[in-house]
Amino acid sequence: MRNERHFSILVLFAAITAAYVNSLGGPFQFDDYSVIVNNSSVHSFSAWLADGGIRPVLKLSYMLNWVSGLGAVGFHLVNVGIHAANTFLVYRLCCLLASGRESAECRGGSNFLAVAVALAFALHPVQTEAVTYVSGRSTSLMAMFYLGSLVTYQKGRKTGSAVYVHLVSPMLFALALMTKEIAVTLPFALLLLEMVMDRRDQPRLSMSAHQAGHWMLLLAALIALALHSGYARLIEVSFETRSGSENLANQANAIIYLLRQLLWPVHLSIDPELPSGGLWTSGAVAKAAFLGALAAMGIVLARRRSVVGFAILWFFIHLAPTNSIVPRLDVVNDRQLYLAGLGFYLATAVGLQRLLASERQRRWAHLAAGAAALALIAMTAMRNRDYRSEVALWESAVQSAPAKARPRHNLGCAYALAARYEDAQRQLQTALHLNPDYALARKNLAAIATPVPSL
Fold it and tell me: Which residues contact 37 (CB under 8 A, 6 or more apart)?
C-alpha cells in the first residue's frame, strides 16, 4: 500500500513538472508590476514590516523571493512548488475522504480516485492563472494553507489528535486569511466535511467543540477587515459598481462561464468577455434556475453523505466570496476556479468510477485517465506559452475577446513597449472605437503619436 501511495505521488509530481517546466522563463506581467516590481514594500524586510496593509503573508513571500536575487525565475519556481504542494494536499484530502467514509485505507479504487482528482487539479489549464501568472500566487498560496488546514483537521478527527484539530488546523487557517481574504469560506468547508463524514459514534456537540477555534478566527478576521479603512473603502466602492439585481444577473452568466471553462478550456483569457450589463434576459434566468437546481441537488445529496453532494456544494462555497452578492469590476477570472474547480474534478471522477464498475472497465478507465492527463499537460504547456511576453499574453486575450476594449488597449501598450508603434496605434484606435469614453486609451494613443513615445 505504501509503495502504491509513493508511486502515485511520484506520478503527480512528474506530471506537474512536464506541464509547467516551460513556465519558468516567463517575465513579470501586468499586475506583477504594481504588486511586486514597483511595490517597495516587498523589496526588503524592513519595508515589509512597515507596510501595515492586508495580506502580510503573501507580501512576505514576495519579499523573500525578491531579496533572493533570482528574479522572475525564482518567483516561478516558488509558484510551481506551491502548486505541487497543493496537488499533494488534494490527494491527501481525497484519501482522507475515502478512508473517513469507509474502513479501508486509500488503496485500490480509492487511491485511483484520489490520483485522478489530484491529476485534474494539477494539470487543468485553467490553473495557469494562479500558477504561471506570478501575482496569481495570492490564490495558490492561500490554497496551500487552506487545504493544509482541512487535511490536518480531518486527520486529527480521524486519529483523535487534539493538536491537529485545535492548534495546527486553526493556525493554518490564520495563515490562509493573512494571505488572501477569500479564505473566509474555510469554516463552511469544515461544516460540509462533517456533513459527509460518518461520525455516528461521536456525540452531537463534538463538531461544534472541534470547530470553535476556526469560527472564532473567522469572526476576528471579519472584524479586522471591517475596521481596516482601505478594505472597508474597497467594499464600499464594490457595492457602488452595480445594483444587487444587476450583480446577480452578471453572476449567473459568470458561473456558467466558469463551468464551461472547466468542461472545455479552449478559450482561456486573462481578461475574458461575457455579458456584464446586469440584464435579466431569458438566458440569464435559465442559467440562474439551473444553478439554483444544482445547488439544491448538492444540499440533498450532501445530507445523504454523498461525495457528489460534497463536490457540488464545495464548488458553490468556494465561488461565494467572488461570485455572489459582492459586485466586482472584473466579473470573472479563471483563478477563481483554483479551489472551486476541485468540486468539479471530484464529482466527475466519482461519476466515472461508478459507471466503470467491472475489472475490465477499470482497466479502460486507467488508460483513459492517462490519455486525459497527457492531453491536459499539452494544453497547460500551450497556455503557458501565452505568458512568455506581454505581447503574447494580450494577443491571446484579444483573440479570445476581440470586441472588448481593455485587452485591445493593453495589447497596444505592450506593442508600444516593444517599439511596435504602428501596431500599437491600431490597437489603441480599435479600443477607442469599441469604447469612445476610454480616457486612458486616448491618452496613450496621444503619447505614442509624439516623436519620443512615453507611456
Answer: 28
Specify the pLDDT at position 198: 63
Gap between the terminal Cα atoms of the chain: 60
pLDDT at site 453: 47
User: Could you give the CA distance from residue 128 to residue 141 in angstroms, rounded to a whole number?
Assistant: 14
User: Mean per-residue pLDDT for 401-429?
Assistant: 93
3-state helix, strand, coil in the chain (%, to 5): 75, 0, 25
Q: pTM, whole model, 2 decimals?
A: 0.92
Determine contact, residues 3/48, Cβ cutoff 8 Å. Answer: no
CB 243 within 8 A of CB 278: yes
What is the SS3 assignment for 95-159?
HHHHHHHCCCCCCCHHHHHHHHHHHHHHHCHHHHHHHCCHHHHHHHHHHHHHHHHHHHHHHHHHH
Half-sphere exposure of 419 (CA within 13 A, CB side): 1
Helical pair 2-20 and 359-385, crossing angle rounded to 10 deg: 30
All domains of the chain in start order, with CATH: 2-241+355-385 (no CATH), 390-448 (1.25.40.10)
Residue 348 CB neighbour total at 10 angstroms? 17
